[in-house]
Amino acid sequence: MENSILQKVVKGDAGYVLEDVPHLTDYIPDLPTYPNPLRFNPAYSVVKQYFVNVDDTVAQKIVVHKDGPRGTHFRRAGPRQNVYFESSEVHACIVTCGGLCPGLNTVIREIVCGLYNMYGVSKILGIDGGYRGFYSKNTISLTPKSVNDIHKRGGTILGTSRGGHETSKIVDSIQDRGINQVYIIGGDGTQKGAAVIYEEIRRRGLKVAVAGIPKTIDNDIPVIDRSFGFDTAVEEAQRAINAAHVEAGSIENGIGFVKLMGRYSGFIAMHSTLASRDVDCCLIPESPFFLEGKGGLYEYIEKSLKENGHMVIVIAEGAGQDLLSESLQSQQDASGNKLLKDAGLWLSEKIKEHFSGPHKICVNLKYIDPTYMIRAIPGNASDNVYCTLLAQSAVHGAMAGYTGFTVGPVNGRHAYIPFNRINESQRQVVITDRMWARLLSSTNQPSFLSSKEVTEFEHQEQLLDGEIFEDNKF
Ligand SMILES: Nc1ncnc2c1ncn2[C@@H]1O[C@H](COP(=O)(O)OP(=O)(O)OP(=O)(O)O)[C@@H](O)[C@H]1O
Ligand SMILES: O=P(O)(O)OC[C@H]1O[C@](O)(CO)[C@@H](O)[C@@H]1O
Ligand SMILES: [Mg+2]
């Protein structure tokens, strides 16, 4: 076993690898255990095999070959027979960081209700306004009653922020308040912050479990099947695309132009396009494009307008940033994320300018920017169920003494994933994958790539060890 502070790798027969998560007993030996209170809970006691076998693991790769290695596995999430906290001893806190996402309130609600109803825990604090709230604000007391209706509202009742991650101040606050379970809901930046909080807690030898719940509307967190809120955002984006289609179709040479979120990953734009079928061109950060000349965007727009009289374009906010780079200043937000220029607005102006020039076609372009409208809403039904499972899996993991983990579904089964696996890369649309090919075939747009570039993309992806192909699921 290789055992560093963040990596706990167990190897077995036939190429089996378990990338395990830390446990409190890794650095605090002889911790007492207690029977899981769920054993005495009438709602759960009737379930056959309710408890997860301690050795259950979830395979990352489910398409395998006869002689191929069994590959990476993660510890299966779920309740254990024994727990490492007594109910009365638990003092939990919940924090939400980064941008908003549909379902945040559902996760908060279900952590509170899960702790209370399943484990009899009643000391639960909300941290106000993201990481900086640990050391600069009062806490909010959370009870099943106070969170009862919050899943019907968008946003986060706890507030959120970017920046302000000061590890030692945060861990001082955890220690001073006697908190022993920390639930951290947020995106890639937040999970990196959670990893360093875990490391500092471990360095101080504290009996504090740190559980991450991945949140990102962009769906850019690797390993997990998808992030919560993504489904809701794609659904809400349909309203903007429908409006763009109606507007474009009602006027000669109408162009409906919709900007959606997606800083580095175009999943929202790709899935919204595939779901809608009214989109003629989808532009995402992963797929470079150009405007002028043969095979360029202007040529495609001209052809579409000639053939159909109207068209719909969807652009992810991070697409085409290279084209406006000359005017880019390197500004950052409080968390250090690069601030993007508004590619949607820029491109819609360029299109209008181009067609009013020598290539004169009198285009009628309607620009629709619903970016914040698709994330400042409550989760839909399927996201709400998903958020419940995430929250409960996190609670079961912390109660069972696991720490330094992020929870999420891997091939449909919830698992505990070490922070380093979540934090080492960003998930992106693979443009040499079948899903992007489906999109190209549904819109009929050009790929904007020469065959030389396709070969280069394939080569880069082969170097990236197979995980990059995870989208090739369907
Ligand atoms: N490398 C890091 N180490 C420690 N803390 C970090 C790191 N990166 C970001 N953070 C902290 O995590 C919090 C959220 O980060 P960020 O604003 O990047 O959002 P995010 O979690 O990535 O979510 P999203 O991108 O979906 O909005 C901030 O408080 C930030 O200070
Ligand atoms: O304006 P804000 O709140 O910083 O958030 C914008 C960013 O947040 C995200 O929605 C990720 O959460 C990105 O798609 C977007 O670039
Ligand atoms: Mg982020």
UniProtKB/TrEMBL annotation:
Q: Which GO terms describe its molecular function?
A: 6-phosphofructokinase activity; ATP binding; metal ion binding
- One of the GO BP terms on file: fructose 6-phosphate metabolic process
The active site lies at D218 (proton acceptor)
Keyword flag Hydrolase: no
Q: Which InterPro entries match?
A: ATP_PFK, PFKA, Phosphofructokinase_dom, PKF_sf, PyroP-dep_PFK_TP0108
- Enzymatic class: transferase
Location, primary (coarse class): cytoplasm
Q: What is its EC number?
A: 2.7.1.11
Q: Where in the cell is it found?
A: Cytoplasm
Gene Ontology cellular-component terms listed: cytosol
User: Which residues does the record give as substrate binding sites?
Assistant: T216, I217, D218, M261, G262, R263, E317, Y372, M373, I374, R375
Q: Matching Pfam families, A to Z?
A: PFK (PF00365)
Q: In which pathway does it act?
A: Carbohydrate degradation; glycolysis; D-glyceraldehyde 3-phosphate and glycerone phosphate from D-glucose: step 3/4
Marked site, Important for substrate specificity, at G189
Highest taxon of source: Eukaryota
UniProtKB keywords: Allosteric enzyme, ATP-binding, Cytoplasm, Glycolysis, Kinase, Magnesium, Metal-binding, Nucleotide-binding, Transferase
Q: Quote the subunit structure annotation.
A: Homotetramer.
* HAMAP family given in the database record: Phosphofructokinase_II_X (MF_01981)
Q: Which family does it belong to?
A: Belongs to the phosphofructokinase type A (PFKA) family. PPi-dependent PFK group II subfamily. Atypical ATP-dependent clade 'X' sub-subfamily.
Function per UniProt: Catalyzes the phosphorylation of D-fructose 6-phosphate to fructose 1,6-bisphosphate by ATP, the first committing step of glycolysis.
Name of the molecule in the record: ATP-dependent 6-phosphofructokinase
Species assigned in the record: Acer saccharum (Sugar maple)
Its lineage reads:
Eukaryota, Viridiplantae, Streptophyta, Embryophyta, Tracheophyta
